[in-house]
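SEVERITY: medium
COMPONENT: batch folding queue
REPORTER: lab tech (J.R.)

DESCRIPTION
The queue accepted two submissions in a row. Attaching both inputs and their returned structure tokens so the on-call engineer can compare them side by side.

ATTACHMENT 1
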Amino acid sequence: MRALAAPDCPFHAIFLEGGEHYGKTFLLQWLKTELTTRVVLIPIDKRRVVPAPLQLLSEIATHLGWQHFPGFDRAMRTQQRPIQANVSNVSVEGSYVNVQAIAQESEDDRLLAAIRLTGAFLDDLRALPDTLRPLILAFDGYDASTSLIDRWFDGVLVEGLCDIEHARLIVCGRQVPSTSMKLRTPAERFIEVPLTGVADEQEWMQIIASLKCRLPGDDDVSRAGYLRGIVAAFKGAPGLILAHLKAL
């Protein structure tokens, strides 16, 4: 993950996969403090709210400064138009009749609009000044489905970002599907990082010392056994183990 900050890094995408409490969000927050390179962290947890493509792109532009996205800004203003509906060839009988025409865009219409906006966004991203290069865009909370956000994210945004030399991409989720996103990412440009937990209790000794917590037990053997039990019970999940240690 540190290597993404190097201008000549051969990898443009990292897919960080692991279950809940296995440290995906923690690693992204750590990366922001570890690197001097600009790291833009965007949450896309659809269990809370499903973001629209325009919302995600606008959030990135806000982080980096709208002055760097003139083309995207123009494209966005051009597409902001009211949807109109006409009622015709309708016969109505009776008194106090109210006829309303309700028009909605289909998901395919919204996808097409998102594709146009993304093209303008990527053009502006290619022209970023040297002071913002390389740029790491990290998306946390990815969960594949057949919704508009995933059809656009997998098929349009990821592929476009991987074609920009100074752009880096991190996608965090419980599982990143090989049949969509990874298939569209050049094989030599991405790596998979599965988070399987920290199952070796010795790895936790330094953390226990830094937390200044005391494990239950009368001697080192019993305390080591207690620690092994914690690690085994939580299956090495760092978030759960750390919360238990802090409670001590």
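ATTACHMENT 2
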Amino acid sequence: MSAPFIPDSAPFTAEQRAWLNGFFAGVFSRSGAPGISDLKSQISDPGSSAAALQPLTILWGSQTGACESLAKRAAKEAGKRGFAATPVDMATFDVARLAAEKHVLVITSTYGDGEPPDNARALHSALGSDSVPSLAGVRFSVCALGDSNYTLFCRAGRDFDSLLEKHGAIRVAPRADCDVDHDAVFAAWLAAALDALSGTSTSSPAALPSAPAPTSASPSGHTRANPFPAPLLAVRRLNDPASAKEVNHVEFSLEGSGLAYEAGDALGVYPHNCPALVAEILAAVGCDGEEAVPSPVGGSDIPLRRALTEFYDLGKPTSELLATLGIPTGAHHVIDVLAGAGGIALKPTDLVAHLKRLQPRLYSISSSPKAHPGQVHLTVGAVRYDAHGRARKGVCSTFLPERGAALGRIPVFVHANKAFRPPASGDTPMIMIGPGTGIAPFRAFLEERRAIGARGRNWLFFGDQHEASDFLYRDELLAMRDSGLLTRLDLAWSRDQTEKIYVQTRMREATAELWRWLEDGAHVYVCGDASRMAKDVDAALHAIVADAGGKTAEAATDYVYTLRATKRYARDVY
């Protein structure tokens, strides 16, 4: 075996040496590789004529994989600028190791009520304690991802930014707060941060440089920027008409798209706004919808009605729109702002200039590609409510059942979520907790295990309001139980009796058995509401470990942390 390109004596961590050895092995396996021995000696001797690569740690916190992908993208760009960049999962990192770093980039999302992603929770908590070593030698910058429709926008990233500074780390470039359409802001932040870390920045760190335009998607594949127009095959209501809820099973064809997905992934769907809402907005601004406005995707002008239907977010108003119309920040939707503007004239071009782009909605995929070749299925709860005297609708959740079939083809793309996959071994037990539409990925997991003939035990906790009207996929789940695919099915109907019964109630009732499954190596998965259900389930899991395992609260927390760190406790929550 040949010697590694980067010897153990080189001034890098083990992870960095492994990454560099792999990189140079790939480079020099091609013909025409110049000066390998010279390069090796230069790298191993930082005092040589060629400057050594600067180590750079890129910490990522991600619930669905987006920040992990951005961290890898940042590492690739940093490599072009003379850095030995290593993307690192925050779950594998601690404050002691952080204190030993010199250059750090943090890329993290926010979910639920301003919470850090699961893999970032331990580091976030540790930084908030009083026993953090000095980080005076650390130079850093933070990129925070979030959704401005939520009150605690980018909260986790803001926390990391302030905590690092609090403990002495030096911010070399200002934090970037990225909304859902993050490409341009992320690219600008990365350029500024790498310039600052390498000492080539020529601008003040008080403000980010102008964001470049997002790059175009490759025409050879379908992505978020180049979605596939998927035929909508079916929309079928899953609950009884008497139910207080409306949940639909949705099927798309992926034939000819080249798109591939795995159980645990999500599907991005580009919706259209409700025509009635568009008509209200046109009336509020005194337009007939035929007025020409610039197309947000380039090319010739398009009618205002089409722009509002297909391209712009008519939900939460932007600060620019509020400022232009002199409306307080408490307004809920764009129509509320326009209706309360008191007849202030707004040109069509000014209106669209003050709106955000309409973003795709991500839904957990509820099918296995092995069970449904060429298709992808979703389980979508329709959102409908009243607020401020108006009926409101979820943009995509009502678009699919009301107008999707008439449109025929709907733009979609696959969003990979490598952090939420069935166990690699088909023999590993699975515990799945997914009430309501949280059943979606577990239908996919079970179909996948049946298709591959996996022998591992499967336990599902499912529930909703009423058994008679809200038992989603009833026939399928009962058949899986009867066939033995589902080793155990625990059901919780919250409103079929006086006392509320939830999935966490059933978990506590099965404390001893759940502990045995955990000790047997079971993986635990949770899907559904982040702000209530997931928190209650997490609390129940800690209590089960403490009670059945005979552990203190602190030891139970350590046990659950180990489950997360070893990828045995994964959550797809929203």
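NOTES FROM REPORTER
Confidence is low (pLDDT under 50) at residues 25-50, 202-220.
No errors were logged for either attachment.
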